[in-house]
Amino acid sequence: MLTAYTRASDASTSTLVKKLVNLRAELPASAVWIDLNDPTDQERNWVREQYAQELQFIEELSEIEASSRYYRDETGLHINLYFLSLENGHARNVNVAFTINNGRLFTLRTDELPEIRTFFAHCAKDAGEYPSPAALLLGLVGTRLGMLADVFEKLQTDLDMASGGIFRGESRTHSAALEALARIEDINGKARLGLMENKRAYSNLSRDADVKADANTMNELLRDVESLMNFSDFLAERTQFLLEAAIGMINIAHNKRLNVFTVLSVVLMPPTLIASIYGMNFKYMPELSWPWGYPMAIALMVAVAAGPILFLRRKGWL
Q1: Are strands 76-87 and 104-109 parallel, antiparallel or unpaired?
Q2: Which residues have a Cβ under 8 Å from the Cβ of 45 and sit 6 or more positions away?
Q3: Contact 85, 94 (CB under 8 A)
């Protein structure tokens, strides 16, 4: 899908106007932002013909070398960043390529991203604070950081719920808590990877002439990144603590169940011994001819079973 954004201004405000492009002739010459979502070869050719802009290939977006993610060449300034995507509680990082060249911002991605919609909704009302392609790029990154902050707040709430399930819940809730902690750690880890990408990208952006004019905005975003990374560290440490606590509680519950079987074996061992003695087939056993021999054996088995129970209770082991 190919989308072009142009500026519209009146006496007081400047806004962005969105246009879905279905034909080569529909690409506006005045576009300030071209967004390509999983583009076809034909759409890539349209951009090349209209704006003389070469785009990266989708396969190149996943490369992790710094030299492949932040560089400048004859086709402009190129920056690849991770955007966190959450679908049904499952997290994955989506690679988004940003290119600034000839006064335009080009974005290349493979997935729908709520950050794009949210940023455009803001710019559709007032885009005056984003006068340049670099400002648009930083605005998109700022929107992404704001949504990441919301994700971290949700993870904090989920951790509180998991903590209650571990320390105040029953043993059957521990497995659900472990699943929740694994999900939280997965989301937090992928979000942190995106923040680390931001820090590495800023060191390259700060030296580029296209972005130096927005140094104050970039420094503000960098402070937000630092604060979010610190919070991510806190979430990781707390998740690890709760994970160890959950495993400890599961082990305690497991040991309690094993204790029950251990106590049962201790309690039943003496009665079993008595029953086995009187189950032997010897001819001369005086107790076999006693009228009260059977009640006596039953009473003896009950007595020797009650003795260990009382002893264990006195020791506090039951």
Answers
A1: unpaired
A2: none
A3: yes
Are 172 and 249 within 8 A, CB to CB? no
* Residues 143, 122 contacting (CB under 8 angstroms): yes
- Report helix, strand or coil for 20: strand
Residue 203 binned pLDDT confidence (cut-offs 50, 70, 90): low
- Give 170-232 as a DSSP string: -GGGHHHHHHHHHHHHHHHHHHHHHHHHHHHHHHHHTT-HHHHTTHHHHHHHHHHHHHHHHHH
Return the bridge partners of 109, or none: 37
* Residues 4 and 19 sit within 8 Å (Cβ to Cβ): yes
Place of tokens 């009382």: 310
Contact predicate 297/278, CB 8 Å: yes
What is the C-alpha to C-alpha distance for residues 237 and 30, in angstroms, rounded to an integer? 49
| Overall pTM surpassing 0.85 (yes/no) | no
Q: Please list the residues that pair with 90 across neighbouring strands.
A: 87
CA distances from 316 to 111, 124, 313 (A): 61, 71, 5
Q: How confident is the model at residue 290 (pLDDT cuts 50, 70, 90)?
A: confident
The packing angle between helices 133-167 and 174-205, to 10°, is: 160
Q: How many CA atoms lie within 13 A of 46 on its CB side?
A: 21
For the four alpha carbons of 186, 189, 195 and 196, in that order, the dihedral sign comes to negative
Cβ neighbours for 117, distance < 8 A, ≥ 6 positions apart: none
Question: Using an 8 Å Cβ cutoff, are 55 and 106 in contact?
Answer: yes
Neighbours of 129 (CB within 10 A): 11
- Strand order of the β-sheet with 90-101 is 14-21, 2-9, 33-37, 104-109, 90-101, 76-87, 70-73
Q: Could you report the per-residue pLDDT of 18-38, keeping only the tens digit for each?
A: 888 788 877 778 888 888 888
Token pair of 132 as six digits = 């340049």
